[in-house]
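Q: what sequence does this backbone want?
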């Protein structure tokens, strides 16, 4: 498989090195998927989940031994049923304490998917294509990533 980061091969190692220097040991990836109208795909966390009811970008944890690109593809497919086609840019990162209290860094990437078919939810209870100017209940970090 061709690297999803072919246009910026040194991006991910640099991001991981910066995180290691900051003492971050747990990593999460987020996918900023936009439709033709510029709306962004958001998923709502189930009420009984950590931060239940919050809307977020598709994504999740990088498993031990897994690359960032592999995790990004896997998480998009698992959470939405969509197939990641390409990483088109780096949107930014933020740190937070996970439900277990570990300091975690989320790396978020702008991506394209192979086709905008129906979203198939497996871990969330809602999906929406949101206008960046009219975001639902998202975290402050996600609001910054989306430019609002």
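A:
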């Amino acid at each position: 498989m061709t690297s999803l980061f072919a246009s910026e091969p040194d991006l991910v190692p640099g991001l991981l090195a910066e995180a290691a220097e900051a003492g971050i040991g747990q990593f999460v990836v987020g996918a900023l998927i936009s439709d033709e109208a510029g709306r962004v795909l958001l998923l709502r966390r189930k009420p009984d989940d950590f931060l239940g009811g919050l809307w977020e970008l598709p994504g999740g944890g990088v498993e031990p031994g897994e690359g960032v690109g592999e995790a990004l593809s896997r998480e998009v497919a698992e959470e939405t049923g969509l197939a990641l086609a390409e990483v088109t840019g780096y949107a930014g990162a933020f740190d937070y304490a996970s439900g277990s209290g570990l300091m975690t860094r989320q790396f978020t990437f702008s991506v394209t998917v192979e086709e905008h078919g129906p979203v198939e939810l497996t871990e969330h209870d809602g999906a929406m294509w949101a206008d960046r100017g009219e975001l639902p209940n998202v975290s402050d970090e996600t609001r910054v990533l989306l430019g609002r």
